[in-house]
From TrEMBL:
<feature type="transmembrane region" description="Helical">
    <location>
        <begin position="211"/>
        <end position="236"/>
    </location>
</feature>
<feature type="domain" description="NFD4 C-terminal">
    <location>
        <begin position="348"/>
        <end position="487"/>
    </location>
</feature>
<keyword id="KW-1133">Transmembrane helix</keyword>
<feature type="transmembrane region" description="Helical">
    <location>
        <begin position="442"/>
        <end position="459"/>
    </location>
</feature>
<feature type="transmembrane region" description="Helical">
    <location>
        <begin position="81"/>
        <end position="100"/>
    </location>
</feature>
<feature type="transmembrane region" description="Helical">
    <location>
        <begin position="146"/>
        <end position="165"/>
    </location>
</feature>
<feature type="transmembrane region" description="Helical">
    <location>
        <begin position="242"/>
        <end position="263"/>
    </location>
</feature>
<feature type="transmembrane region" description="Helical">
    <location>
        <begin position="112"/>
        <end position="134"/>
    </location>
</feature>
<dbReference type="Pfam" id="PF23262">
    <property type="entry name" value="NFD4_C"/>
</dbReference>
<protein>
    <recommendedName>
        <fullName>Nodulin-like domain-containing protein</fullName>
    </recommendedName>
</protein>
<feature type="transmembrane region" description="Helical">
    <location>
        <begin position="415"/>
        <end position="436"/>
    </location>
</feature>
<dbReference type="InterPro" id="IPR056555">
    <property type="entry name" value="NFD4_C"/>
</dbReference>
<dbReference type="InterPro" id="IPR010658">
    <property type="entry name" value="Nodulin-like"/>
</dbReference>
<dbReference type="Pfam" id="PF06813">
    <property type="entry name" value="Nodulin-like"/>
</dbReference>
<feature type="transmembrane region" description="Helical">
    <location>
        <begin position="356"/>
        <end position="374"/>
    </location>
</feature>
<dbReference type="GO" id="GO:0016020">
    <property type="term" value="C:membrane"/>
</dbReference>
<feature type="domain" description="Nodulin-like">
    <location>
        <begin position="16"/>
        <end position="263"/>
    </location>
</feature>
Amino acid sequence: MHMRPGPTPKAGTRPPWVGLGAAVWVQIASGNSYNFLLYSHSLKSVLGLNQRQLTMLGVANDIGENVGILPGMVCNHFPPWVVLSIGSVCCFFGYGLLWLSLSRTLQSLPYWLLWLALCVATNSSAWLSTAVLVTNMRNFLVNRGMVAGILKGYAGLIAAVYTEIYRLLLHSSSPNLLGFLAVGVPILCLLVMNLVRPCTPSSRESSGESIHFVFIQVAGIVLGIYLLTTAVLGDILSTSPIISYIVLATTAFLLVAPLMIPLKMTLYPPNVRNIGMDEQESYSSNAFVEEDSSEKTTPLLTPSSSEATFGGFNGNAESSDIAMLLAEGEGAVYKKRRPKRGEDFKFKEAIVKAHFWLLFLVFFVGVGSGVTVLNNLAQIGIALGFRDAASLLSLFSFFNFVGRIGGGTRMLPRTVWLTFTQVIMIVVYLLSASGINGTLRAATGILGLCYGTQFSIMIPTVSELFGLKHFGLFYNFMSLGSPLGAYFSRAC
């Protein structure tokens, strides 16, 4: 087959590591929906809500976070900074209205407006996460599973970061937390949105790239251990303002660690000649795929048109079939076949596949039930005698991070991981329901581990089954399983 020469990559095109480092910070911002249990008790007491109303606000939190069909479609037609800007606006107005209500600046707001504001506020998570996840998975084609595990790992870990900010900087004040989310998250996105953009993807995995990924994973694990330690020692650390600022500064330094990779590559640039050869091979390979796919999607001529071309074969159905075969042989007709596993599916082509709905079911059952427990973790902790549920959130966050990082590896088949974590979650739910003293912390940590593993496995699996062209739409449709599962869990 004749192969068209690929386009020559632009000289000086920067590597995608800058965007990945900035994406970590955006993922921090996108984890704002995990803070619901930090201010849910204040919503109940200050606004006079009953438990049913508070539970429905938890549903709004889940719906806003996971309904990302629109971001999935927008990211295919607009650059990432547009998607990030929309997410920032949602965050500002949603959390801003909640802050006005909880601080009693605006009184007697109707309940439906609070519910809608929380939906809009947490929907910013879908916009921010979709922008950085889709962009970076396309920038790292070979290591898309690793990238998904890292980014979603940091998103899971950020609940512990927010808990630390809530305790040490905001003095455990729910109105201050809502004000911080309304202003701080949009400012962070505005500062880094220009760094999150498409780059020339690498065509093959190199040893240097593997080392960089290991560095980011190790930095994340160190950050997680540090946050867990400071959460356990929270009462001691919060007694001195100086110590509190040192703890927060150290946290910020560990979060900057992924940006050390592009800094190192700037100071010690790799061999330009080898990079150019790799990129040229990548573009040539992509050109081959484009040539091949263009042949596969050539429109199919109708039988009547083929019969008109071959007028001697129009007597009956058999002659019509022969005419079609001859037309295909002459190159006049190309049959358009359905995409195979791993190729780019359209949405209507994917929803008829059994794999699509099996993944959705796993997300519905596993992640949906996990979200239900997470949103009610404060009430569970209080019922079992815990004065402060923030330590439980930090524990859940750390093991959620570990599960998401581990879910990006391929040591075992993903079906084995999914089955194993589902069985463990059933045991954890039974353990939590028993109310045995001293088991809540262990159950919370194990639940976070299983929850994070299932979340991380779903993302690369979707891209490997249905391609990256419409990945944002597929990923956000799968995410709908989480609020639906959470709603039915509460109904039961």
